[in-house]
Amino acid sequence: MNFSPYHDLGNGDVLFLLQGAGRTILLTLFAGLIASILGLALGWLRFVSRLARILTGPFVDVLRSVPLLVLLILVGTFVGILGIDLDPFSLAIGVLALYAAAFASEIARAGFGSVDARTRKAARALGMGAGQEVRHILLPLAARVVFPAWLGLLLALVKDTALVSTVGYMELMKSSQVVVTQTNAPFVVFAVSGLLYFLICYPCSVYGQRVEARMKHDLAP
Fold this sequence. Notes:
Layout: H1 11-48, H2 50-65, H3 68-82, H4 88-113, H5 117-125, H6 130-160, H7 172-183, H8 186-219
Helix pairs in contact: 1-2, 1-4, 1-7, 1-8, 2-4, 3-4, 4-6, 5-6, 6-8, 7-8
């Protein structure tokens, strides 16, 4: 009788992959929200202040130049050396959020820069303060310009979560690797994994295209 340590891909394995997909979505939502807020604030500072651009330049350049995998390994090792008790989920969110925030800040800065200076002057002439100008003029106009780039960043973030297994977080890719060791069916397992990534990203992409079309329609004369 031939005994094998492997088993066929079953419902339990598919459920395990679905749980990994859920953790991937959760990680993307938290990291994406934090990155968007940090990126917006940093992009605004870099837009209005030359000093802020100089001071934050090294932070943005380093995060945009160093591969995410290297950042995860370095930060995970550094946290371990310091003896900080940080769970893999929090560590993954922190690194992903900072990494994406560096790119989001440049997207936001480009969006603010796309707004005509005459429009800003007109807002001030109407008596708007700095906060009102940002809320009613800069943000709505800049959002129409940078929305595709911002959506692309979030979709890339979904796929970047595949690297956080290096810090011990069980997301979709790590779950796939575990199932492969149990089934010895890498093609089938990764085909299912790829389908799950597609089912996460494609609806967001389609919805984003509709939102972008609606924005363009609102700007049409």
